């Protein structure tokens, strides 16, 4: 059982930066692949980024070069550094955890946080 809490969302001007954080409970945080998803009204949840237990990362094509995911197993946290924000990045961002990256990427069979709103003004 993993409990996730996101923070760091807000209103940002296009071209600006934002840093999202996710705090996880549990003694076995290091056993999980972690990631971020996002969702806008009327659209399906979209994969954004993932990080393996060994630190290897994977990103959606739309965010490569702008977003950076990181994890600190000792502190049970993951972060998402977002640079060069675009209006299309506006969404609720969710933190997720799963035993394997392949499971996490499906968006199913994972633990989820409550989400944090990111709004980018043009």
Summarize the structure.
This protein is mainly β and 122 residues long. The protein has one helix spanning 101-106; strands at residues 4-7, 10-13, 18-24, 33-39, 46-51, 57-59, 67-72, 77-82, 91-98, 111-112, 116-121.
3D architecture notes:
- The protein is mainly beta and 122 residues long.
- It has one helix spanning 101-106; strands at 4-7, 10-13, 18-24, 33-39, 46-51, 57-59, 67-72, 77-82, 91-98, 111-112, 116-121.
- A hairpin with a 4-residue loop joins β7 (67-72) and β8.
- It is globular and about 40 Å long.
What proportion of the residues form beta strands (DSSP E)? Answer: over 45%
Question: N- to C-terminal separation?
Answer: 40 Å
User: What structural class results from the helix and strand content?
Assistant: mainly beta
Number of strands: 11
Average pLDDT score? 93
Question: How many helical elements?
Answer: 1
| Oligomeric composition of the shown chains | single chain
Ranges where pLDDT stays below 50 over 5 or more residues in a row are none
Q: Any descriptors?
A:
122 residues; mainly beta; 1 helix; 48% strand; globular
Topology:
Elements: E1 4-7, E2 10-13, E3 18-24, E4 33-39, E5 46-51, E6 57-59, E7 67-72, E8 77-82, E9 91-98, H1 101-106, E10 111-112, E11 116-121
Parallel strand pairs: 2-11
Antiparallel strand pairs: 1-3, 3-8, 4-5, 4-9, 5-6, 7-8, 9-10, 9-11
């Amino acid at each position: 059982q993993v409990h996730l809490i996101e923070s760091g969302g807000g209103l940002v001007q296009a071209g600006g930066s934002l840093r999202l954080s996710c705090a996880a409970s549990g003694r076995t945080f290091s056993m999980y692949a972690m990631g971020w998803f996002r969702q806008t009204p009327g659209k399906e949840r979209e994969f954004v980024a993932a990080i393996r237990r060994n630190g290897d990362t994977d990103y959606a094509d739309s965010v490569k070069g702008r977003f950076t995911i990181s994890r600190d197993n000792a502190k049970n946290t993951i972060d998402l550094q977002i640079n060069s924000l675009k209006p299309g990045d506006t969404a609720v961002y969710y933190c997720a955890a799963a035993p394997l990256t392949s499971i996490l990427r499906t968006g199913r069979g994972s633990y989820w946080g409550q989400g944090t709103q990111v709004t980018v003004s043009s």
